[in-house]
């Protein structure tokens, strides 16, 4: 594989990530690449690149996996320096702490513009309280020209506990493609097992891992069926996404006798066709930046219920366009869901308000323009 741009004079942006796999962060990178043709793009993964790369449609995009084993990546620095000198990018854009250390070889390679984004916190550092992680960000940060915070909470973290000057931090929220994610105008795909009007579908999309807390939603659904006996036979749960907790979620639903009222198919490539057929969308995460899946659900006309963490309150105003609940509290989540199950008019009002807000404030075009302007500053 050639890593040169040939006769293409467009400046190159290297998106340097820990791993390029299914996820909200990676989906945001795909959106930038596919909608920013003024630049060439390359994805460099510290570990591996999966079939998720097939979502990139921009011609000529390069994919390079470094295949680093677990542990600190110091020994990879010379290789990354050589790679960047050969690629000659105008911009290197790293994301989250797992890739931030590679800002150091980008500095050695004298890349003209070095950008680092923070998307959210890991389950092992909810709220960014770890002093070690704060120190690591300070250690890796001096050569970064511009930090991008995807939420107001992350912006406050970078300028507060981490201590970067506000002049170096820029907030750019995720945007949603409201042409692709929109209310249903077509019947659901054949795989969809439920019928609108007959079933009331509670849905979630996300990696089945601890920080996303899918078992919290499973427990809330079990409790919801007990709280709403009149509607219990109509209730259905859809959870789209694979991961280490998928089998545990299926087992808990089966144990509760609700396996027949739930569809957990693992990873899907047709989320945009499925989401419009969800009535209530739930984001049960313990930590979030600006959630792509929450924005996509809002744009599809779902009524959202989300945990009050990270950037979620920037997308969902409690009682305004959705409901907010405490994290890791399945009882509170069940009660919030029961309110919307019992009140179809309220549910529709929140769905309508969310759709309007997604279209008005969180457009994909606005996000892409912001990154385009940032990258162009390297010229």
List keywords for this structure.
379 residues; alpha/beta; six-stranded parallel β-sheet; 14 helices; 17% strand
Task: Walk me through the structure.
The protein is of the alpha/beta class. The chain has helices at 24-35, 77-87, 97-100, 103-108, 131-140, 152-159, 214-227, 246-255, 271-274, 292-299, 312-315, 330-342, 344-361, 364-376; strands spanning 12-17, 40-45, 62-65, 91-95, 113-118, 146-149, 169-171, 200-205, 235-240, 262-266, 280-283, 303-307, 323-325. It has a 7-stranded parallel β-sheet with strand order 3-2-1-4-5-6-7. A 6-stranded parallel β-sheet has the order 10-9-8-11-12-13, sandwiched between helices. Helix 8 links the parallel strand 9 (235-240) and strand 10 (262-266). Helix 7 packs parallel to helix 8 and helix 7 (214-227) crosses helix 12.
What can be said about this structure in brief?
The protein is α/β, with parallel strands linked by helices. The chain has 14 helices and 13 strands. The radius of gyration is 21 Å and the shape is elongated.
């Amino acid at each position: 594989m050639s890593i040169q741009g040939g006769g293409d004079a467009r400046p190159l942006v290297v998106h340097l990530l820990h791993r390029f796999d299914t996820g909200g962060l990676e989906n945001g990178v795909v959106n930038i690449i596919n909608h920013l043709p003024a630049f060439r793009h390359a994805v460099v993964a510290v570990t591996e690149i999966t079939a998720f790369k097939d979502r990139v449609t921009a011609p000529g995009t390069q994919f390079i996996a470094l295949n680093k084993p677990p542990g600190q990546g110091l020994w990879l620095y010379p290789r990354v320096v050589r790679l960047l000198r050969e690629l000659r990018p105008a911009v290197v854009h790293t994301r989250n702490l797992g890739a931030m250390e590679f800002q150091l070889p980008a500095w050695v390679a004298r890349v003209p513009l070095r950008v680092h984004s923070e998307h959210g916190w890991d389950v092992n550092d909810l709220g960014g309280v770890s002093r070690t992680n704060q120190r690591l960000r300070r250690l890796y940060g001096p050569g970064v020209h511009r930090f991008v915070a995807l939420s107001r909470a992350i912006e406050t973290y970078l300028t507060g506990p981490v201590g970067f000057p506000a002049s170096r931090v820029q907030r750019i929220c995720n945007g949603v493609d409201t042409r692709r994610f929109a209310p249903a105008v077509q019947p659901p795909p054949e795989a969809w097992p439920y019928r609108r009007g007959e079933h009331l579908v509670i849905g979630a999309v996300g990696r089945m891992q601890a920080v996303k807390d899918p078992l919290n939603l499973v427990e809330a659904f079990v409790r919801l069926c007990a709280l709403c006996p009149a509607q219990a036979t109509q209730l259905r749960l859809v959870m789209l996404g694979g991961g280490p907790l998928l089998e545990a979620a299926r087992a808990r639903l089966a144990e509760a006798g609700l396996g027949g009222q739930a569809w957990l198919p693992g990873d899907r490539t047709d989320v945009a066709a499925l989401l419009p057929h969800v009535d209530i969308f739930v984001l049960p995460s313990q930590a979030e930046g600006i959630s792509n899946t929450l924005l996509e659900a809002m744009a599809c006309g779902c009524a959202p219920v989300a945990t009050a963490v990270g950037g979620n309150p920037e997308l969902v105003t409690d009682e305004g366009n959705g409901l907010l609940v405490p994290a890791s509290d399945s009882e509170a989540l069940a009660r919030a869901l029961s309110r919307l199950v019992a009140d179809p008019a309220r549910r529709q009002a929140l769905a309508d308000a969310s759709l309007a807000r997604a279209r008005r404030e969180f457009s994909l075009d606005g996000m892409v323009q912001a990154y385009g302007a940032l990258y162009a500053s390297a010229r």
